[in-house]
Structure formats: C-alpha cells, structure tokens
Amino acid sequence: MAAGAGSRLRVKKDAEVTQVEFVDRNILDEANIQQIGEEIGRIIDAGPKPKLLISFANVDHLSSAALGTLITINNKVKNKDGQLRLANIDPQIYEVFRITKLDKLFQIHESTERALASFA
Amino acid sequence: MTLSLSLIIANRRGEMDSAEAQVLDVLDRLNYPASSKHAVRLALHEAVTNAFQHGHKGLPPDEPVTLDLRANAHELVMSVEDRGPGFNPLSVADPTLEENLEVPTGRGLLLIRAYMSDVTFNPRGNRMTMTYKVPATAASPND
Asked: Looking at the complex, does the CB of residue A90 fall below 8 Å from at least one CB of chain B?
C-alpha cells in the first residue's frame, strides 16, 4: 500500500524489514526525487538499526539525481548501523549502477526473496 | 529522412517533460530501438538538469536553455546550451573513484559520456554537443 496520500512509495513492513517500492516508473523529476528521499529518510529515522529493502520492480528510468538520493539513504542507514538492500533492478537500470560503479557500493539482489534472505 | 528540433526550455517540470516527449517522438518516427531511446532520454535529461543546476547557478531562475537536435535513422546530434559563463568539464571529479563512491553528486556527465558516442563542449563551456550512433544491428533501413 502507499505510505499516504501523495506518497511516491508503496511501503510494506513486517517485524524486521521495511520493503519499499516506487509508485513512479520514471525517477527523473527533481521534486519527486526529493520527496522520495524525505519519505525514506523518515522510515530510517523511525527506529534503531533499520533494515530496508528497496525494490525497483516498477522502474524504467533513473537519473543521476536519483542515484544521489540512494547514496544519501545508504549513508543514513550506515550511520544507524542498519542494513540496506536493493532488488528487482531491470538490466537497463542495472547498467546505470554498473557504469557509475555503484554496483560495488550497494548490495543488489535479483529478487525480493534473495534480498530478504540476505539480511543478517 | 532527417528530422530536426529546436526548443527553448524553461526550468519548469512541464516544459522539461514536453521537451523529452518531443525528442522521444522524433526517435519513434525514426524507429530507434528501446535501448537507444533510453540512452538519448537519459543523456538529454542529465544535460538539461546540469545546465539549469550548474550552468545557470547565480542567474535568474527564468533563464531558459536551448536544445537543438538533428537525427536520422543512424545518428543523432543534440546540443544543449545554457546562458551561464560556462565551465571546464575537466574540473569534474571522477565519481567512480573509491573515495568518491559515497558522494551523492557528480554523475550526470559520466552517464552522458557513457551513453553517447561523442561529447564535446564549445570553448566557453556553456554548450554541450552529444552525438549518438545507433548500433548497426538496430538501425532502420529508412534514412
């Protein structure tokens, strides 16, 4: 379900892991990217040692600004001694991670199931 | 067939969306494959965003940028020109170095260079010209 009216995210939370999916197929617009960063920031701030899984299942296009927001999210999760996983990245989008070498920074899994199994 | 487009784009979401839609329409008319449309769309978005965010730093927010595009079934050339003083592309730090991986900015030009066949700047540094060559196996026979 969406996190709230006007949210750019669908959020599912179980006992340990918060799963996030994007509402938009194109994560390009600066205002939307800023909103996504703020919404996920609030999820990270909500508790200690956050375990966060971000799924890109619906995403067709991603800009460098969106990558920047993901890096900021990763830094926030690390600062709280949490864990971040990315999953379901389309090959066209994965290429953007590979070119920028961010495939080395993020823990990326091919499916939600594998990402969930990887949390310590 | 050669198609061309000249647009003046203001820093408003509707205008940027409209410009991207008009460019994608040109690519559709030339039967560009999905991978080429992804490459051109990403490069265009990054170039226009850079022009507004960096090229126009300190300028009034209503200053527009100019897009000139010319394309056939095999090759596309597009220029994005801002009204700022220009910048030195060599001054951009390499975001793929390990010490820069956690820095959230500075990847736009890297992506443009990766997806385009050639990228050049005018001497002033306020106009970027990007050339994209459609992969031979994907080119339409109609040009």
From this structure: no
Closest CA to B132 of B80, B81, B74, B89: B74
Q: What are phi and psi of B124, to 5 degrees?
A: -70, -25
pLDDT tens by residue, B19-66: 999 999 999 999 999 999 999 999 999 999 999 999 999 999 899 999
Q: Does A72 touch chain B (CB under 8 A)?
A: yes
Strands (E), chain B: 3-9, 65-71, 75-81, 118-121, 127-133
The ipTM (two decimal places) reads 0.89
* Rounded distance between C-alpha atoms, residue A57 and residue A47, angstroms: 26
Contacts of A75 by beta carbon, 8 Å cutoff, 6+ apart: B102, B104
Buried b (16+ CB within 10 A) or exposed e, B75-102: ebbbbbbbebeebeeeeeeebeeeeebe
Rounded Cα–Cα distance for residues B81 and B104 (Å)? 25
Residue B104 and residue A28: Cβ atoms within 8 Å? no
Global pTM?
Answer: 0.92
d(C-alpha B29, C-alpha B25), whole Å? 6
Task: Give B108's contacts in chain A (Cβ within 8 Å).
Answer: 63-64
Q: Which is nearest to A96 in space by CA: B31, B57, B95, B30?
A: B95
Residue B132 bridge partners (DSSP): B76
The tokens of B17 are what? 């969306």
